[in-house]
Design goal:
By secondary structure, the chain is an alpha/beta fold. The chain has 16 helices and 16 strands. It is 37% helix and 16% strand. Bound molecules: pyridoxal-5'-phosphate.
Length: 443
């Protein structure tokens, strides 16, 4: 019956409590990946699986990059770990300098290292609060997120985030409010790039200022393109308007670029792509090509310098992680940046853009597709849910694709694709045709 070779040496699956996974369902029918190279994973039955998601939006330069492996190996045998509190090691400074050289918007060139996207978000929120206090605006303790936002899983991140399943079980930070989301299928379905309608939704920030008082609001955080919630592209003019309103009221603007950072849209950062410059930017994922966990918060000099005050010897920001600026992660990050630069990956998406849009939007005629949205090397394909079974249709497409050899990602009934930035025309065609077949089977 089994068309695939038998799986050898599968470990017991009992002890590992898996994240964001239906554990019992998974363990009854597991999907295990055992190796990866270039655009492909290999499953534990030997099947090749085309990576339509760059792992989890992070393996931007593709898998199995020797240069990163060698840099990590070298660093591990030179300086495996060193503390970053009141101590330093050269590679962290070197990596920060290299990141500053590609500073988002040419402006955010001060870098705070973290261990993940969630830590970057909590860090940025804390920097925003500390900044307001430092400039004499200590009444600004409120932070604003957005409905359907995803900012990781720390208490800060779930509080400003807008995904109900991540929030409902937990107490949240006080003093948080949310802008409305920008998703509007009635006016903006099947759009390539930015939709026309909805810039006025940025005026929600004015509404919250009127409700709470500007002097209580420290910062507003949004994903320039919301990824995990199902690929929501900002309407034309929306980010510009949000920037203007935030500036007018002394509110810091934070872009969560954990997904959009490092070339996903065809520019180094979404900040560059949209030409809208925030005050703080959170990153992770593509920072090290997903190889070693690491995040980074980029800050403007204005934000950074405002905190560089106080008595000599005073720690300016009481915040940091054991793994902030971890030497091995920095080595991975430096090698990753070299690859991005040498292979032009931070802008490479522009070369395959036209084909990407066309291939994805050609899926429009597949059964149950109610929207397709594309920007950079990202696509969101929204399906009509099965009656009374939200998420079931997309989940079936996901498992079917995996069986046939394509990794996609689903959230609810939305399919998200975000392949490595090395994807060639043939990979894009294969993704589109495999997904099309799966959509027809799930009809
Ligand atoms: C926009 C955004 N922010 C934050 C995070 C959290 O990152 P991490 O899972 O590394 O904590 C993610 C993860 O997908 C993300 O997409």
């Amino acid at each position: 019956m089994n068309a695939h070779p038998p799986r050898l040496n599968r470990p017991s699956l009992d002890a590992y409590w898996m994240p964001f996974t239906a554990n019992r369902q998974f363990k009854a029918a597991p999907r295990l990946l055992v190796s990866a190279e270039g655009m492909h994973y290999t499953a534990d039955d030997g099947r090749e699986v085309l990576d339509g998601t760059a792992g989890l939006w992070c393996v931007n330069a593709g898998h199995g990059r020797r240069r990163i492996a060698e840099a990590v190996e070298r660093q591990l045998s030179t300086l495996d770990y060193a503390p970053s509190f009141q101590m330093g090691h050269p590679i962290a400074f070197e990596f920060a300098e290299r990141l500053a050289a590609i500073a988002p918007g040419g402006a955010l060139d001060r870098v705070f290292f973290t261990g993940s996207g969630s830590e970057s978000v909590d860090t940025a929120l804390k920097i925003a609060l500390a900044y307001q206090r430092a400039i004499g605006q200590g009444t600004r303790t409120r932070v604003i997120g957005r409905e359907r936002g995803y900012h990781g899983v720390g208490f800060g991140g779930i509080s400003v985030g807008g995904l109900v399943n991540n929030r409902r079980m937990f107490p949240l930070l006080p003093g948080v409010d949310h802008l409305r989301h920008t998703h509007d299928l009635s006016r903006n379905a099947f759009v390539q790039g930015q939709p026309e309608h909805g810039a006025d939704l940025a005026d929600d920030l004015e509404r919250l200022v009127a409700l709470h008082g500007a002097e209580t609001i420290a910062a507003v955080i949004v994903e320039p393109v919301a990824g995990s919630t199902g690929v929501l592209v900002p309407p034309k003019g929306y980010l510009e308007r949000l920037r203007a309103i935030a500036t007018k009221h002394g509110i810091l603007l934070i872009f969560d670029e954990v997904i959009t950072g490092f070339g996903r849209l065809g520019a180094p950062f979404a900040t560059d792509y949209f030409g809208v410059t925030p005050d703080l930017i959170t990153t992770a994922k593509g920072l090290t090509n997903g190889t070693i966990p690491m995040g980074a918060v980029f800050a403007t000099r204005a934000v950074h310098d405002a905190l560089m005050h106080g008595p000599e010897g005073a720690i300016e920001l009481f915040h940091g992680y054991t793994y902030s600026g971890h030497p091995v992660a920095c080595a991975a990050g430096l090698a990753t940046l070299e690859i991005y630069e040498e292979e032009g990956l931070l802008t490479r998406t522009n070369q395959v853009q036209a084909q990407w849009h066309a291939a994805m939007h050609a899926l429009r005629d597949c059964p149950n597709v109610i929207d397709i949205r594309t920007i950079g090397l990202i696509a969101g394909i929204e399906l009509e849910p099965r009656a009374g079974k939200p998420g079931a249709r997309a989940y079936d497409v996901f498992t079917d694709c995996f069986e046939k050899g394509l990794l996609i990602r689903v959230t609810g009934d939305i399919i998200a694709l975000s392949p490595p930035l090395i994807a060639e025309a043939e990979h894009i065609d294969t993704m589109a045709s495999m997904l099309g077949e799966a959509l027809r089977r799930a009809a």
